[in-house]
Write a structure and sequence with these properties.
This is Chromosome partitioning protein. The chain is α/β, with parallel strands linked by helices and 227 residues long. The chain is built from eight helices and six strands, in the order βαβαβαβαβαβααα. It has a single domain, classed as Rossmann fold (3-Layer(aba) Sandwich). It has a six-stranded parallel beta sheet with strand order 3-2-4-1-5-6, sandwiched between helices.
Length: 227
Amino acid sequence: MPVIVLCSTKGGVGKSTTALVLAQVYAAAGSSVTLIDADPNQPLATWASRFGDSVPKQLEVMGGINEESIVDAIDTAAEKCPFVIVDLEGSANLTASYAISRADLVLIPMRGKQLDADQAGRVIALIERESKAFRRKIDYRVVFSMTTALQSREQRHIRTTLEEKGIPILPASMMERAAFSAMFQLGGTIFDLSEEDVSNPRTAQENAQQLATAVIETLREQETAAA
């Protein structure tokens, strides 16, 4: 079963939000999902604990995961769930290394900022080291987050630079939507939000589904290439 790891050495890039959105979309589609919260701040475990009654039955959230338990947690979850999604701390530590070693796909969220791009480079270097250590290709994609319909000049430049370097970018981005942050305040899933809760939740729901579909298509491409 695919293990999807969200990794960034920088905070504030939408890593936990992206992990939660993906988990909710796959759960809404009827798949069992384990969401592993390996961030010491425990944003996802807190969400699940605070709003337990509205957490989908297909979604299990595991908190309190660290470098000593991350491998067992991932392996155990992968044996029973179609999807395992891991949210890591914003640093390149042993927990991140262990999780990446188990990943089928690493997603690297970043905003269209040069500082974020520099930190994404650190994650890519870590992935490449783990690939060499375990003698297998660990696939990854950069995911632009907190984007708007009108791209800034800086974001366009960064995207072009990544493409020129051959760094793969997920074709779908996480847009800047109030609905994504509202989940942590109001509970439930992106699909539970109404116009009374946030403005235009449908647009956020569509964006979430586009992102989840892009991840699935990337995993399928991997399977085809390996066949």
